[in-house]
Structure formats: structure tokens, C-alpha cells
Amino acid sequence: RGDLSARRWLPPSATAQTDKSPRHMTREICRSWRVPLVTLFAGLASADGDDGGEGKCMGWRQTAGCSPSGRREPARDRGCDVSIGQDWSGYCECAGGVRAAESTCTHESFTCEAKCREQWAWLREQRKKRAEQEKEVESASADDNLAKLYKRGKGFYVMGNTELALRHFREALKLDPEHGACKADYKQAKKLEKLLGKLEGVMGKEVEGKGRMKQLERDDQFEEARGLIEDSLALSPPAVYRASLYRDLCICCTKLRLKDESLSACKEHHALDSGSAASRTLLAEASLLAERYEDAIGIYRKLAEEDEHSKEAREGLQRAEKLLKRSREEDYYKVLNVSRSASPREIKRAYHKLAVEYHPDKNKDKADAEREAAEVKFKSVALAYEVLSDEDLRRKYDEGEDVSGNPGEQQQQEQQGGMWMNHGGQHVHVRFR
């Protein structure tokens, strides 16, 4: 395409005209050989491989556990033209590091070659749409109609593209700085963008289909995220933002064991997310926290029926059934008059108060019936505190596991301090911390 000085390419009429530029010589070649100029350059571009290999398939990548994100099993990888049937989980690797057809063990047969073509066709379409959006933004200028700019900005805001919305609102305000509706939407979008940026710093970046990428561990982190989410929802943002915000609020309230707030947020997310499996799983967790065990069992059971390989659904169903059975027995939280989200300090304070109230020495002068009832209550309080004051036992109790009759319990209690007392023929251990 560049230097065409090779004389064997030139026609006889051009060999004597050595002062011609490469462009002129190229035209002489095409005119002599009767080849259109565009055809020559198209062939050269094709030879250079300008398409970048888009759509090319690299092969099927097998994973374990019937999950596309499971452990890789390279020995079971297959070629692009092999039909991938059921009982195969993994994904198709395409050119450019693109993944396609991420699959569990239940899916229809397909070939990676076809899936890669489909994926790249979709990506090219998205590029085209994005380019058109950028082109629209570039074409917008101060001379554009105010109503048109505001309408476009509002459209981008409703679709969740805050950046483009703000750019349109700014251009519109240049034409009329006192436009009331545009000014109000601009301030709201600007404040929402700032809050979402802070939320991303706390909970991690939002990845479509996977949620937040950062795992929070401390209660203060969940409290901070909860405050940012509630401030964002107070702005009454468009529905495209509310779905993810209510999902994050549902997670934070569940982790903080706020049962009423958790159930309310999870229901909102479930309604906005069209009842997806992920939203139903969060709703089931919130139902467990709110002690609505039968509701949680129904949700988990349906999820397990829809996907029999779902480990999360099976384990959730087992936990819900255990908690339902436990709810029909004595509730240690109710014995101590504390909530399920009570801190260790609150549990300790409640125990000391009840232990003093029902201590046998405090009730020895009462009637026999009252004294016996106090002793029974005193032992219940002591047993409830033994379980809820131990972090590991409390976790097991909250998950519905049996925490009674632990081997070596008496020896462990003696090592931790306390004393054993005999009341009415019963051997009772009392410990104050």
C-alpha cells in the first residue's frame, strides 16, 4: 500500500514517468489492470487481518461441580465443533478473552463455534449502540434545542447512564440556567452519582449478574453501606437503580440481623428483580431471620426443584427445617428476653438480671410452688446463657443444630470458672462473667 517503486508492477506507459507520486502510480496500476481502486485496498486490508479474529472460538473449558465458576478440569476440554450436551458444565473460550455459553449441567446441546459467533455478534451490536450514543453526545452543542437536550438527558438517567445524563443536563443548563426541572434532575443525578461512588468504595464495584465484588466482614462496614444506600433511596432514583440498591440493603440488614428491615428490603428487591433465583434466595434468608420458617422452606424447596444441583438451595432447606423444629422447642433468646441480634454484652446483662431475680437464695422464703418455679426458671436461664454466651455454640444454635448434651461440658465449664450448686436434688452450674 505504501511504496510502489517496484517497476515490475508498473504498466509500460508509466515506466518512463518516474516523477509520479505513489498515489498516481497506484491509479496507473488499477487503470492498466482494470481493477477498481477500492478492490485493491480492500484486499490489502483483508490480508493484514483487520478483523482481529473476532468471533473465533478457542474451545470448550470444562469445570467441576456443575458450575461455570467451579474448578477447571483441563483434561475434559473439547474442541469448538464438539457438541456440548447435558452433564457438562463450563464455558466456551472465544478470541480476545471473551467467554460465552457459561453453563451448568442442565442445558440444551450446542457447539462453542456457534456460541462464540453469537457472543461476538452481540458485542459488535453493543459497540455500535455505544458509538451511536457517543455520537449523539458529541453532536449536542449549545445551539441544540433546550427541550431536546433535557429529554435526552432524562432518557439516559432513566436507563442508568448517569454520566451521559449529567453531560446533557449541563448543556441544557448552559442554554437556560434557570430551567427548574433540568436543574432539579441535575442536582439529584449529581448527588446520586456521588453516593454510588462512595458505596462502590465500601462494597466494591458492581458486576452485572454477580453483584458486588467486595466481601465485607465487619458490622461497621455494613452499617456504613446501609447508610449510603438509604441516602440514595431517599432521592427516589429511577427503577434501574432501585433494584440493585434494595439488593444491597437486603444483604446489609440481613448481616446486621435487622429482621424487619431485612424482610422489607428483600421483598422490594424481589419485586423489582422479577423474582429471580438470586432475589428469592435473599428473601428466604430474610424470612429465616424473621422466624418465618415455613415461608423460607417453601422458597428453598421451589428453588431446589428448579435446580436439583443447587447446593445453596439444599443447604438452606435443611437449615430452615431445623430452625422450624427448634422454634417448637424452648427459645433461649426468649428465655433471656433478648432479640436474636443482641450483642454479647446485652446477653450478659440480661442473664445477670434474671439470675439474681430467680436465684434460689432469693426465693427460699417463698411458698413451695413459687420456689420450685423459680428454680426451674433459674436453670433455664443458666442453660440459655451457657449456649448464647459461647460464640461457636450460638452460631450452631442459630443454624438449627443440636447444642444439648455436649461431651465434656462439665469439665469445660469448670476450666472456664464458676461453681456447681445443688438445689432440690438438681446439680446446677452457675457462672458469672
Molecular structure report:
There is one protein chain. With 433 residues, this protein is mainly alpha-helical. 58% of the residues lie in helices and 8% in strands. It has 17 helices and nine strands. It has helices at 22-33, 37-48, 112-139, 146-159, 162-175, 180-203, 219-234, 239-255, 259-272, 277-289, 293-306, 311-327, 332-335, 344-358, 368-388, 391-398, 409-416, and strands at 57-62, 83-84, 90-94, 98-103, 110-111, 206-207, 211-212, 419-423, 426-430. The strands form four sheets. Strands 1-3-4 form a three-stranded antiparallel beta sheet, with helices on one face. Helix 14 runs antiparallel to helix 15. The radius of gyration is 34 Å and the shape is flat. Residues 1-18, 32-51 and 406-428 have low confidence and may be disordered.
Secondary structure elements and pairings:
Blueprint: H1 22-33, H2 37-48, E1 57-62, E2 83-84, E3 90-94, E4 98-103, E5 110-111, H3 112-139, H4 146-159, H5 162-175, H6 180-203, E6 206-207, E7 211-212, H7 219-234, H8 239-255, H9 259-272, H10 277-289, H11 293-306, H12 311-327, H13 332-335, H14 344-358, H15 368-388, H16 391-398, H17 409-416, E8 419-423, E9 426-430
Antiparallel strand pairs: 1-3, 2-5, 3-4, 6-7, 8-9
Helix pairs in contact: 4-5, 5-6, 6-7, 7-8, 8-9, 8-10, 9-10, 10-11, 10-12, 11-12, 14-15
